[in-house]
Amino acid sequence: MAGKTVTNGAARCGLNGAALDRPQQDKTGMGRVDLIGAGPGDPELLTLRALRLLQQADVVVHDRLVSAEVMACVPAHVRRIPVGKAAGFHPVPQEQINALLVELARSGLTVARLKGGDPTIFGRGGEEFEAVTHAGIPCDYIPGITAAQGAAASARFPLTHRGLATGLRHVTGHRARDAALDLDWASLADPQTTLAVYMGAANVAEIARELIRHGMPSDLPALAVSQASTPQEKRLLATLQDIAAALARKPLPTPVLFIIGHVAAMADDCDLPHESYRPEWRLVAHG
Ligand code: SAH
Hints:
The protein contains 10 helices and 10 strands. The protein is an alpha/beta fold. The chain folds into 2 domains: 9-142, Tetrapyrrole methylase, N-terminal domain (Cobalt-precorrin-4 Transmethylase, domain 1), CATH 3.40.1010.10; 147-286, 2-Layer Sandwich (Methyltransferase, Cobalt-precorrin-4 Transmethylase, Domain 2), CATH 3.30.950.10. The strands form 2 sheets. A 5-stranded parallel sheet has the order 3-2-4-1-5, with helices on both faces. A 5-stranded mixed sheet has the order 6-7-10-8-9, with helices on both faces. A hairpin with a 7-residue loop joins strand 8 (221-226) and strand 9. The chain is elongated and about 65 Å long. It starts with 8 loop residues before the first helix and ends with a helix.
C-alpha cells in the first residue's frame, strides 16, 4: 500500500535490523512524513515503531511537549527542528509547520514529525496529515500513549472500572482568546464517564463550575496531573468543587491534565488538601 513501510522481525523486536529496514523512497525521489506519537514523556512508552522510525529519519520536527528523554532516542546525526516555540516564545504557526513538512519531504527526506502523546489527539495531527497527503506525499500516523493513559498508569488507576466508570471522554479545556468554552456541558456532566480534560489548566474554575451547574456531583474526585510519566510528575486530588482553588494555592508546572470522575479517587500518592478529604474515597481506592 502506498506510503506503508515494511518491517522485518529484527527491526520489530530489537531495532538491530533497523538499517536493513529503511522506509522506501519513491522513484521520483520524494521523501515521506510520519506523524509519530512521542507519548507523555517516559521514553519507555514509545512504541517500537516510533523508535525505529526516529532512528531511521533524516530529520525530526518536534513539539515542545516532547521530552528531552525521548529526544535522546534520536541519533546524534539526525537533524532536529523544534517548532513548538520559536525565538520570542511564539509557537511556529500551523501553516508554516505544514509547509515545512511538505518542503522537507519534497526534497527527498524521511521526516519524523514527533508530537507529544498521540498525534491524533489534540495535536493538530489531522491538519498536518491533510496538508502532507494533499501535496501527494506519503504519510502515516504512528500512535502514541496519550497523556490520560500515561497519567493513569503512573498513578496506578484505571480509566474505566466496573461500577465506577462505564466510559471515557477526552475533551479540550482550551478556548480561543475571548471565546467561551465551547463544550456540551449537559452531555459531559455524567458521573459514570471519566473525563480527561486536556489543555484545561487556565479554565479549570469555569470547567468545574459548569459541570456542577449541569448536574455533576460537587464532591466528585478531580485529579490534576502535571508532567505525567516523567520523574517530575506531581498529582493533586480534590473535589470538583475545590480543584480550582487548590490549584490556585499550589500551582503545578505545565503540562497539566485533569481526570474527573470516581476512578480518580484510586490514584496513588496524591497531594490531597484537607478540605477535599472524603473518607469514602479511601473505600473506592482500597476496594
Ligand atoms: N497529543 C497529546 C495532547 C496534546 S494537547 C496527547 O495525546 O497527550 C496538550 C495537553 O496535553 C496539555 O495541555 C496537557 O493537558 C496534556 N498533556 C500532554 N502531555 C502531558 C503530560 N506529560 N502530563 C500531563 N498532561 C499532559
